[in-house]
Amino acid sequence: MRKVLYSKNLSIGYHTKKGNTIIAENLNLDLHEGKLITLIGANGIGKSTLLRTITGIQKPIQGEVFLNEKNINSYHLEELAQNLSVVLTEKLPPSNLTVYELVALGRQPYTNWIGKMAPEDIEKVINAIELTNIQEIIQKKHFEISDGQLQKVLVARALAQDTNLIILDEPTTHLDLHHKVSLFKLLKKLSATMGKCILFSTHDIDLAIQLSDEMIVMTKNKIVQEDPCKLIEMGVFNTLFEDEDIVFDAEKGKFLFK
């Protein structure tokens, strides 16, 4: 399976006037096509910082990130957008865009300077809408739909962008259980059937254990990337929370409360 993104001795954190604040160091992550990979860790551990760094939004403290065998910081913005789709948790800016128009924005890296879509662009947009099953809402304004529907729309926009790597920052936040499961299954299907590499951070750890091909687990002491069964064998989930009232049951494969 082809390696889509990898890091070499990566250190992440913040540059300040007093020096560097390092959140994690010596990270050697490998993301392969056709894999659904979840990123988990306690609040404030640095998940968003890691995602911002490997997507080129934030500079690393040390080390390198390679996307399709090219250093991510050497991409021009338009070229990067043709190789990497990012779905962040920020609210959309005020606008009257319809769902269809929002999905069509995924073609922006490929259209000409006035944004006119060619037949191939329209085909990619329609295909993304069908894959995410949002046909019934494409004429609605984006502020008229539910949070669960909006997440599917943003995934559709990323699909229309037609990159082999999609990275999402906590896409299941604010969703009810039905929509969480629905989104997980959609992402799983897209990685399996289309060969996409999909990485997303989540707090829904029990679902992630059931549906992920691999997981990246961030704790204060280390970051581990493995398949869920191996992580259970290694006892990694027991170190996730510094709370004696939360324990991981290896046999059931989920967290329990004392």
TrEMBL record:
InterPro entries: AAA+_ATPase, ABC_transporter-like_ATP-bd, P-loop_NTPase, Siderophore_ABC-ATPase
Keywords for this protein: ATP-binding, Cell membrane, Ion transport, Iron, Iron transport, Membrane, Nucleotide-binding, Transport
Example of a GO biological process term: iron ion transport
Bilayer topology: Peripheral membrane protein
GO cellular component: plasma membrane
Principal location class: membrane
GO-annotated molecular function: ATP binding; ATP hydrolysis activity
Highest taxon in the source lineage: Bacteria
Zinc-finger is among the record's keywords: no
UniProt-annotated location(s): Cell membrane
Keyword field contains GTP-binding: no
Domain (ABC transporter): residue spans on this chain: 5-245
The protein's name: Iron complex transport system ATP-binding protein
Pfam families, A to Z: ABC_tran (PF00005)
